[in-house]
Structures are given as structure tokens and as C-alpha cells.
Specification:
With 255 residues, the chain is of the alpha/beta class. The chain contains eleven helices and seven strands. Strand 1, helix 1 and strand 2 form a beta-alpha-beta unit. Helix 1 packs parallel to helix 2 and helix 1 runs parallel beside helix 7. The radius of gyration is 22 Å and the shape is globular. The termini are far apart. The mean pLDDT is 89.
Length: 255
């Protein structure tokens, strides 16, 4: 029997969608391809009637059950694997893959991990701030003009997920650290690395983004996140101890 993606563990996340009809069309595309979990983050001008108009049929139930969040970080807390879709590439957007390869990778990941697939606003797509949460970035190849309608982009990704099958057994990826655990680790790392002078305090986020990209290539388990935070706590303790034992400048001048 072919091994399939565990679709109930996959959620489509629309970040700041601007056109209600697009939201309905996304729900319809998801329903066509067997996906049912939809999340919105800060939708603009959301109108239920306009969204329902393009959803139609069974896909209306996706809109009825979708979740809405004000902040992306809150929306992603429970997910262990996060992918962002974008047409723009660059030095700050590594780990890029195509829709077919991405879908194939989900066979092993989806069995024990919840997956969020992010799509950005219609006018500008996902920003670097949005993509910092992602383990991988998916780009849909086009014949020149790279801008796709939101629902079209969702349909292509969902179609690749729907059609992928694996005849031979695949090794299941164990439960990974979720976004809430990872963000706690990155915040802790940022504080400690700034404290010891590794990060530039004027622009720590830029350097920390490189660290995020490094760890995203090695998806971490919850236990490994706890180990890294334990190292951070030990560095904190050691630097505080050194600072406390160092003679103050006033005392050294008096002597």
C-alpha cells in the first residue's frame, strides 16, 4: 500500500489576506485536494458573505471552522514544521525547494508533526519577518511572470500534496520542537549572544536570522531545544559570576 501524507496534520495559513473572495477560493482549492485546516492572520477587510460566495459547496465548512489570529507568532505556536511560499529569492531567503520535492518530504514529516504552510498578502507576499519562522521556503516555478493569484498558488501546493505517494517505506521524522519552543530558544540565544558580544546590539536580528537558518536545516527536537537553553543558562550564570567577581573601576583607581 502506498505511503501517503497525513493531511489532517497540514494547515494552510494566509498571512494578512486582503480580498475576501480569495479566501473563499483558497477554501475551495483546499477542499478539492483533500485539505481542511485553514488559518488567517490579520485578514484585511474580511467579509464573510464575499468569502462564502467563492467557496461554494463543501468548502464552506472550511471557512466555518477556520481560526483567525492577530499575530503570526501566536498562530504558529503549535506547529513543529513551517514552510513559507514566495517568488522572491535572495541571500536572506535560503533553503528553497520546489512544490513537488516539498510535498514528497512531507510524507515522513507529517506522520508525527503538525505542518503550517504560509502564504503572504496578495500585493507583496511574505516578508523576511514572516519567513524567519520557516524551516523551508517553497517557490513555484513560472514561465517569466512570477506573480500568482493567491488561490492559484494554494491550489498548486495542495495539488502536489494530494498527488504524492511513496511506494517504498519512509523513515518517520520524530516529533520536532514546535514554534513556541523554538521562539523561546531564539530569544534566549539572542539575549546571551548579545551579552557576550557575539551579536551586534545595534542589529541583532540580522545576525540571529543566520542562526535561525542554520538550525532550520537541522530541525530540532524539543529535547535538543532544552539542551541549547541549558547551555544559554550556564553562559548567563558564568558571565554574571565573572562580572560580580571583577574589581570595580572605582576600587582599582583608589589603589
Amino acid at each position: 500500500m502506498p505511503f501517503k501524507i497525513k493531511t489532517e496534520n497540514i494547515t494552510i495559513v494566509l498571512v494578512q489576506p486582503q480580498i475576501p473572495e480569495n479566501i473563499g477560493s483558497v477554501a475551495r482549492a483546499m477542499c478539492n485536494m483533500g485539505l481542511s485546516r485553514l488559518v488567517l492572520v490579520r485578514p484585511k477587510n474580511y467579509d464573510q458573505n464575499r468569502a462564502y460566495r467563492t467557496a461554494t459547496g463543501h468548502s464552506v465548512s472550511i471557512l466555518e471552522e477556520m481560526e483567525v489570529f492577530e499575530k503570526l507568532s501566536d498562530a504558529l505556536k503549535r506547529y513543529e514544521y513551517i514552510a513559507g511560499t514566495t517568488a522572491r529569492i535572495g541571500a536572506m531567503r535560503p533553503a528553497i525547494t520546489g512544490p513537488d520535492r516539498f510535498a514528497s518530504n512531507l510524507i515522513s514529516i507529517s506522520r508525527k508533526n503538525r505542518i503550517a504552510i504560509l502564504f503572504g498578502p496578495e500585493d507583496c507576499g511574505l516578508s523576511n519577518e514572516h519567513l524567519k519562522y520557516c524551516h523551508t521556503i517553497v517557490t513555484i516555478p513560472t514561465g517569466g511572470f512570477s506573480s500568482l493569484n493567491l488561490a492559484q498558488a494554494v491550489m498548486i501546493i495542495c495539488y502536489e500534496i494530494f498527488k504524492v505517494r511513496q511506494e517504498t517505506p519512509v523513515e518517520t521524522v520524530p516529533r520536532l520542537a514546535n514554534s513556541f519552543e523554538l521562539e523561546g530558544m531564539y530569544n534566549h540565544l539572542g539575549e546571551v549572544l548579545t551579552k557576550i558580544g557575539f551579536l551586534n546590539p545595534q542589529n541583532p536580528e540580522r545576525w540571529l536570522l543566520n542562526i535561525r537558518r542554520f538550525f532550520s536545516r537541522l530541525p530540532l527536537r524539543a529535547k535538543e531545544v532544552r539542551i541549547i537553553r541549558g547551555i544559554c543558562r550556564q553562559i548567563d550564570w558564568y558571565t554574571d559570576r565573572i562580572a560580580a567577581s571583577a574589581p570595580s573601576r572605582d576600587n582599582s583607581n583608589n589603589t
